[in-house]
Amino acid sequence: VEMSDQSKDTIFRTILGHWLKSFPNNTSGFTALAEPMVLGTIHTFNKVLADLLPTPAKCHYVFNLRDLSKVFQGTLMAEPKAMQEPVELVRLWVHECKRVFEDRMINEQDHAWFVELIKANLGDFFRLDWDKVCPNPVLLFGDFMIPGADPKIYAEIPDMIELKHRVEEYLAEHNSESKQPMPLVMFNDALEHVARISRIIRQPQGNALLLGVGGSGRQSMTRLATYISGYKLFQVNIIKGYGQNEWREDLKQCLMFAGIQDKPIVFLFSDAQVVMESMVEDLNNILNAGDVPNLYLPEDEDSIVSACRVECQRKRIPPTKLNIFSQYIIRVRRNLHVCFCMSPLGEAFRDRLRNFPSIVNCCTADWFTLWPKDALISVARATLDTADMQAMLGEVLEPMVEMFGAIHLSVEEASKDFWEMLRRRNYVTPTSYLELLSSFSSLLKFKRDEVSTKCIRLQAGLDKLASTKEVVGSLQKEIEALAPVLVVKSKEVSEMMVVIKKDKADAEVIKAACEIEEAKANESAAATKAIADSA
Asked: What whole-number distance in Å separates Cα of residue 58 and Cα of residue 307?
């Protein structure tokens, strides 16, 4: 049976009224807010429950009493001493309603509808105007703006520039300490997601369902938020042959860290790592009960008993095995924060939410929308604004950055038209945009290197032609200098040729005479030989 609004009002007004009495500043002004806050929250919950029904595209639009309690849980995270005026508490209430209900909404129409609902509630229950309660365009609260603060104060973050500087400092510290640095660009949307995830994991039993397409920054934002909170991050490493035994061993390691060492830990898991559907079922059990059946060996149970017996003694309950294990589960649920990253595309998402309801019921959803234009431009500028790219692009760098953002947005619009015309999906994700920037940088560098190589070869050819021209010029000068000598030598050769021809003619005459004399000598020799032979 659904709990009546009167019962909800009684429960939450009692809790909230007791907390409001602890405000040292303007106590009467703050305690007067108990009734409008409770009534406004219940009205918002009922309105969302009635109007935002789950559909195939919005199957995570499932709300229950946990969501109603999360609004008050988030409100009670504030420090009473830090608030001076009642309007500050109203602003915090608006923020918590937006985090619990609005963050899961998938389109601008639903966001606009919810903002109008909150505006109406402010007027009906608080008699306040939206512009007075929320003067800033972005409403964010967090407890990480003062590094090293103890205790951390959950307070409003009015300045996005200051928030960006602070988060970038945390990111630089993370990258200097981590073996896997993250070259992130902290645009406004990314800053908001970091603040949202930090808020979720700050709460006991705070689990996050991070919904978005690939490359939208779900895991990166979770890692950064975990580092900011000072928690340990745990992820499974999916390798070849990873199976049920390895999965349960990893789960046991994570749960025992939270339960035995009693330290906060964030379990970051993605639907891309799902090897078997039983993995999602185990996660569902952890979210719902903090335990997985038949997970622990006898030696593990001995470690649990040794570590958690003191909890029974502290609470003065019998230290039976069942009571000790119950205290262990309480520790696990208090310290373990599951951040489940899922893609809303395809049938698998809807099937898993239907088969494993704790994924929605026990998690605070955060929908990662497509990157807006300022985010696209920021990422493009950070990617292309390097010394090499500046040298290559020069004055066209900024127009080039604007062009990339316009191209991505135009493809998104064309994909919508493609769906309307042909009922076929074309998904344009942040990963596509990053690949575009990477391909452009790689291609530009390749073409620059290619042109540079050709320029070097051309210059070498020109240098060779210039040196050859110099050699030819010097040879030409030598030829010109030797021309008169050549004329004289030619004349001498001509005169010598005349003499040689004359001498040759004389030699021919002498040769002919010699041949006649030789013939006569041969005749005489033959006659002499004949006489000798006859004698």
From this structure: 43
pLDDT value at residue 7: 94
**Average pLDDT for residues 416-422, to the nearest whole number?**
89
**pLDDT tens digit sequence for 298-344:** 999 999 999 999 989 998 899 899 999 999 999 999 999 999 999 99
In terms of Cβ atoms closer than 10 Å to its own Cβ (0-12, 13-18, 19+), residue 340 is buried
Average pLDDT of the residues in 259-284: 94
Taking the C-alpha atoms of residue 141 and residue 419, their distance in angstroms, rounded to an integer, is 38
Tell me the backbone φ, ψ of residue 427, rounded to 5 degrees: -90, 125
Q: Which residues are paired to 340 by β-bridges?
A: 209, 269
Query: For 9, left (φ over 0), alpha (ψ -120 to 50), or beta?
Result: alpha
Q: In the structure encoding, which two tokens stand for residue 56, read together? A: 């195939």
Q: 67 to each of 62, 98, 100, 194, 453, how far by Cα in Å? A: 10, 11, 6, 20, 63
- Burial code of 214-243, b = ≥16 C-beta within 10 A, e = fewer? ebbbbbbbbbbbbbbbebebbbbeeeeebe
Give the H or E element holding residue 341.
Answer: strand 336-342
Q: Please state, in angstroms and rounded to a whole number, the distance separating the CA atoms of residues 384 and 418.
A: 31
Q: Do residues 197 and 339 lie in contact, with contact meaning Cβ atoms separated by under 8 Å?
A: yes
pLDDT tens by residue, 83-128: 888 999 999 999 999 999 999 999 899 999 999 999 999 999 999 9
- By the 10 Å C-beta count (0-12 exposed, 13-18 middle, 19+ buried), 185 is classed as middle
Within 10 A of 428 (CB to CB), how many other CB atoms are there? 18
- Per residue in 449-484, pLDDT (tens digit) is 999 999 999 999 999 999 999 999 999 988 888 888
Per-chain mean pLDDT for the chain: 91
Q: Which of 344, 372, 343 is nearest to 219 (CA)?
A: 343
Chain segment 212-263, per-residue pLDDT in tens: 988 888 999 999 999 999 999 999 998 888 999 999 999 999 999 999 999 9
Omega prior to 318 cis, within 30 of 0 = no
- Give the Cα separation of 103 and 77 in Å (integer): 19
Q: How far apart are CA 91 and CA 97, in angstroms?
A: 10
Distances (CA, A) of 293 to 248, 284, 290, 327, 458: 10, 12, 10, 17, 74
Torsion of CA 123, 126, 129, 131, to 10 degrees: -130
C-alpha 306: how far from its chain's center? Answer: 42
Q: Which of 216, 126, 156 is nearest to 430 (CA)?
A: 216
Kindly give the pairing relationship between strand 155-156 and strand 265-270. Answer: unpaired
